[in-house]
């Protein structure tokens, strides 16, 4: 975690600092989750599509990797969108329009 990003936590009321810290932590968790998703998708698609590693990818392997990653992220978006919608319904809130649900 980059400590310079906490510079905005030095000023403001205790409540403002608390909210800024919560936002920073949420942002860092989201970044870590995104990195894990990309790593997992890459590993799974590589294992599926690259049968004999070499110095370059064949056209077939490139196509397979592209399609695999696209499907993986599509599935992730569907599942996470349904999860966000369900949590919002349980909380009695609405889902932001940009969630595409």
TrEMBL record:
Major location (coarse): mitochondrion
Keyword ATP-binding: no
Compartments in which it is found: Mitochondrion inner membrane
Gene Ontology MF terms: metal ion binding
Residue spans of biased composition, Polar residues class: 1-14
The entry's keywords: Chaperone, Disulfide bond, Membrane, Metal-binding, Mitochondrion, Mitochondrion inner membrane, Protein transport, Translocation, Transport, Zinc
GO cellular component: mitochondrial inner membrane; mitochondrial intermembrane space chaperone complex
Disordered: annotated span: 1-22
Membrane topology of the entry: Peripheral membrane protein
Record has Disulfide bond as a keyword: yes
UniProt xrefs under InterPro entries: Tim10-like, Tim10-like_dom_sf
Annotated ranges, domain Tim10-like: 23-83
GO biological-process terms attached to the record: protein insertion into mitochondrial inner membrane; protein transport
Function text: Mitochondrial intermembrane chaperone that participates in the import and insertion of some multi-pass transmembrane proteins into the mitochondrial inner membrane. Also required for the transfer of beta-barrel precursors from the TOM complex to the sorting and assembly machinery (SAM complex) of the outer membrane. Acts as a chaperone-like protein that protects the hydrophobic precursors from aggregation and guide them through the mitochondrial intermembrane space.
Domain commentary: The twin CX3C motif contains 4 conserved Cys residues that form 2 disulfide bonds in the mitochondrial intermembrane space.
Similarity comment text for this entry: Belongs to the small Tim family.
SUBUNIT field: Heterohexamer.
Name of the protein: Mitochondrial import inner membrane translocase subunit
Organism: Meira miltonrushii
Lineage of origin: Eukaryota, Fungi, Dikarya, Basidiomycota, Ustilaginomycotina
